[in-house]
Design goal:
Elements: E1 3-9, E2 12-18, E3 72-74, E4 79-84, E5 91-92, E6 97-103, E7 106-111, E8 116-121, E9 128-129, E10 134-139
């Protein structure tokens, strides 16, 4: 059985029983005499904060998956470049395949998000890429 306490919060008394928090003992302090103004009579114990999610790679900060700046195509997921279908100078239409990315043993076609001319290919066959990494850049038509 836990410890029985009377706690006054904003002038209103509450009877509480304290057992433990997450298996750890709880220490509670009570005032020696009743205070003139209402004050907390017990130490507030809160549960540990939830862990923060892991940060995305720096290359992916504030980058839309598979997109990026209007003239960039970025990796929508981590994986390995299987084959590159286009080369710098090629004209592509929206939806044309640019390259293939192997992720979790699945071949994913990375397609052009818009019509344009390929300016640079920023990866090579067999290269491992992280989420948000730059794959292809478009130039002026």
């Amino acid at each position: 059985m836990g410890k029985q306490l009377r706690v006054i919060v904003n002038g209103k008394p509450y009877d509480v029983e304290i057992e433990s928090v997450s298996g750890a003992p709880v220490s509670v302090s009570t005032p020696a005499a009743a205070p003139a103004a209402p004050k907390p009579a017990a130490t507030v114990v809160s549960a540990p904060a939830a862990p923060k999610p892991a940060a995305k790679p720096a290359a992916a900060a504030n980058v839309k998956p598979g997109g990026g700046a209007a003239n960039e195509v970025r990796a929508p997921m981590p994986g390995t470049i299987l084959d590159i279908v286009v080369k710098p100078g090629d004209k592509v239409a929206k939806g044309d395949q640019l390259l293939a990315l192997d992720a979790m043993k699945m071949k994913n076609a990375i397609k052009a998000p818009k019509d344009g001319v390929v300016a640079t290919i920023d990866v090579h066959d067999g290269q491992k890429v992280a989420y948000g990494e730059l794959l292809v850049t478009f130039g002026a038509e």
